[in-house]
Amino acid sequence: MNFCPLCGHAVDQRIPEDDNRLRHVCSHCQTIHYHNPHLITGTLPVAPDGRLLLCCRNIEPRKNYWTLPGGFMENGETTVAGALRETYEEARVAAINPRLLSVISLPAYDQIHLFYLVDMPDFSFATTPESHTVQLFTVDEIPWERLAFRTVKRTLEHYLEFASATNPPVLNDHITP
Known about the structure:
Blueprint: E1 11-14, E2 23-26, E3 32-33, E4 38-46, E5 52-57, E6 66-67, E7 70-72, H1 79-91, E8 96-106, E9 111-119, E10 131-137, H2 150-161, E11 171-174
Parallel strand pairs: 4-9, 8-11
Antiparallel strand pairs: 1-2, 2-3, 4-7, 5-6, 5-10, 8-9
């Protein structure tokens, strides 16, 4: 950040009084500009027959790799609303019954990934501009070597570890480079 979005003057990097981190501070209006992690929210959709839905990305990063439907939360929405929106945007699934499944911090990338376990009410799904292929997989068919992100892999592993549980515990983990 070079200029204050409030008044247009130059910003400096310094540790404000009563703080312990380097921040962008406007040299004119003294506004402190905080940079916080981005929230990525998504789902692990389970079809009525128990198969898992994955999307093959049609966009970068990791184009042509498999992922769970998800993306950046928008302002003004809850994590559940964001996850359900992303699921519809990426796979045309009208998911129901969301249960928090995993919270994974990526401090090196200033991100937090939240995934909800959801039910698919039927077998309706479709490709979208973001996913050129959308497919249901049995556990033995999951393309482990072609997964786009480590958070997706970790969430799938956690789900499979507790798949027989009525209420699987929430995974609270972190991934470092």
